Amino acid sequence: LESTKICSLLTVWTFLLFIQEGFALAQKAKDEGAGPKVLKAPLRPLHCGNWVRNADGGSFSSPNYPNTYPPNKECLYVLEALPRQRIELLFDQSFYIEASFECRFDHIEVRDGPFSFSPLINRFCGAASPGLVVSSGRFMWIRFYSDDELEGIGFQVRYSFTADPEFHLHIGGLLNPIPDCQFELSGADGLIRSSQVEEENKVKADQAVDCIWTIRAPLNHRIYLRFLEYQMENSNECKKNFVAVYDGSNAIEDLKAKFCSTVANDIMLDTSVGVVRMWADETSRLSRFRMLFTSFADPPCSGGAFFCHSNMCINTSLVCNGIQNCVFPWDESSCKEKRSKGLFHHITKTHGTVICVSTGVVLLLLILSILVQVKQPRKKVLIRKNNLFHRGDFQEVFDPPHYELFTLRDKEMSADLGELSEELQSLQAIRRSSSGSRCIHEHHCGSQASVNSVKASKENLTSLE
């Protein structure tokens, strides 16, 4: 009996212990439910919203407004105004979104630009209406998000576009009109240049630039865009200048990338239509860019296309053309060096004909001149000279050397030198007078007196020497 009582007591005690633990767990669960709300991974949200470009303005609201909005909802709105305009949002006073610290749960998020990473204006939740919210540019990004519990009536907002006061107005308060500036490109590849605006006089020098280049690739092709040159005059100021790339159309929902800083990346589009847009206000006219587009197909390559080793098949005409059309330069890496053609490669058929005819005429004239010289008779002319040895030719041979006497004007010259000069002059006169006489050849003519005088003169000359 005692053992039976003990077993009964143990059974009752165990039952009471389980009941106590159950109450403890229930109380704990109740306490946790009254505590702070834990952020849970929401279910896959259902998307809603649209991209608005209505120039007259409009309105939009959370789903089911003014009734309670549904859970697990995400709505995205992107507003685009015309150039030189701003966007104004005016929220109704009937506004309630689940309140939380820093609006971590349900909220509406507004950003100053067209992207999810554009500068944040603010996040709104709770019962206080945000009132008026103004953008600094012509784009605004708005997202409404709700989690899986505690919903409210939501919001309703009216939007309108107003003139940007930072743009300078002309006389009469009218802005410069934006001219129609569009270009169309197609083919295997091509260049998009901002310099086309000035070359084709699309925009005047004092006007803002808002130009669009539309690229159309062949059927079943996509487009690869690579920047060759990029420079924004007012860097990091997208309101003043930017280059935007759209994939499929120029609508804001097809915006692929927007560049306004100091760096621009290459872009691979998913469709066969690409749109490049450049905006530069009157103070950013020095902004410029140059971009290469290449049409390509996805592998496997067919029709003799070139495989770029980066999921690209390009036209074979682009291989070894001196331009990198692939993402990596595979199309230019195996090219042989092109040597400049020599002179003979540049000679055309017409040039060859002219050269041959001219050479033939010159050779014919040369042969004719040679034949004429051969057939012409030669005339021998005998010139007789009566006086074979001219007397005048030997005159200088037999004449004695001609001496020229220099007058010595020195006052200290001796008298002997003066007498010597006179005797040399008399001797020269004798020799000249005797050179024309035949007595030089005959040796036996003339008087004895002359001979004696000559001898005497020679002896005097010898004694002087």
UniProtKB/TrEMBL annotation:
This entry's Gene Ontology molecular function terms read: ionotropic glutamate receptor binding
Domain spans labelled CUB: 48-162, 181-296
TM segments?
352-374
| KW Magnesium (keyword) present | no
Report the superkingdom from the record.
Answer: Eukaryota
One Pfam family from the UniProt entry?
Answer: Ldl_recept_a
Q: Which first-to-last residue range defines the signal peptide?
A: 1-26
Q: Which PROSITE patterns match?
A: CUB, LDLRA_1, LDLRA_2
Provide the Gene Ontology terms for cellular component.
Answer: postsynaptic density
Cell cycle among keywords: no
Q: Which Gene3D superfamilies match?
A: Low-density Lipoprotein Receptor (4.10.400.10), Spermadhesin, CUB domain (2.60.120.290)
Please give the InterPro entries that the UniProt record associates with this protein.
CUB_dom, LDL_receptor-like_sf, LDLR_class-A_CS, LDrepeatLR_classA_rpt, Sperma_CUB_dom_sf
> Disulfide bonds, which pairs?
C48-C75, C301-C313, C308-C326, C320-C335
Entry protein name = Neuropilin (NRP) and tolloid (TLL)-like 2b
Instruction: Give UniProt keywords alphabetically.
Output: Disulfide bond, Membrane, Repeat, Signal, Transmembrane, Transmembrane helix
